[in-house]
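User: I'm writing a tutorial on reading structure tokens. Could you give me a worked example: one chain, its sequence, then its tokens, then a sentence or two explaining what the tokens reveal?
Assistant: Sure. Here is the example chain.
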Amino acid sequence: MTTTAELPGSVRKFLDRPHTATFTTLRPDGTPHVTPVRFTFDAATGLARVTTRAGARKARNVTAGGPAAPVALCQADGFRWATLEGRATVTDDPVRLAEAVRRYTARYHAVPPTPPDLVVIEIAVDRVLRLNL
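And here are its predicted structure tokens:
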């Protein structure tokens, strides 16, 4: 277990690679919902971002989980992986959405889908688990 302030360069480099991750949220009944996502992570601030539709199950789960819904993002490549755990919120604030789109575009070299109900799930990462990094 590591906090974002203690992340070695190898982990930061791995999390900068344009991979997808699994994103785990909790449904209102407490069961996990896992879905593949593209995301960005700012190690300096400990903030991860996932853009999605407001009506998507993951966004609805985070909203139902309250102001600090527990979530996890896990990026894997063979026997190397890093999981970012933290508390999430959903916002449609235009400034925060623009920053999420900017970071996504830089990481994946493509603009994310932009449905009319675009939101960003922001995750305040408080723990990083890793293997072989």
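What the tokens reveal: Residues 90 and 121 are 4 Å apart (CA to CA). The helical segments are 9-16, 57-64, 94-108.
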